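Task 17 of the worksheet. Students: predict the tertiary structure of the chain below and write it out as structure tokens. Keep your answer in the requested format; marks are given for formatting as well as content.
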Amino acid sequence: MIAYLRHNRIRLALHQLKDGDGRALLLLHGLGERSPATLPAMAAAWPGPVHALDFTGHGASDIPTGGGYTCEVMMADADTALAHLGCATIVGRGLGAYVGLMLAGGRPKQVRGVILLDGPGLAGGGTATSNPYIPVVDIAQPAPPDPYAIADLATDARPPSYASNYAMLASQHSGLERPITVCTREVPEWLMATMNLLSLEQTGYGEALQEYAALPAA
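Model answer:
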């Protein structure tokens, strides 16, 4: 079942993969990916409902005209889904992991833990871009995913201090002992800065999911 949510002029597709009571699990996909069509094994143990969001330009969500994608736009997409769900634990892959981290800082009371996983778009364009970069976009490429999304989001700069600010907000205001859990093998600079700031260690995914599932209701 798909709930279509309005984010400005974009219609977002929020897929319900599992029904149930209690806090939702929200899956955020990687760059160029889309939400799974059925409940993935990685989410089967979650006791409550499971939802997955297609970011703007991906899956069943709308494709805007002319690109202009930023991670902040993707964060606003996820915030729209979070407002619909009320609160959720987030599992983010790649780009979705970075977006999930930012949302945990922006909505610390509504995000009841975020699990960061490897996937496309995790590193982005690095810490900074010293020279202007104009991507060559193949507009003949079938969409979705929107080729402009791939071009824009694969090269976005991710300063470590920027990610750290969101991580600090999550740590200070969520009330959780561990609001962010790192389950990645790849550790780009923004993620290393987050781990150093909060003294995080890489954790097994199953352990992280079980820990957040056991949290009391917000």
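Marker's comment: The chain has a mean pLDDT of 94. The chain is about 30% helix and 20% strand.
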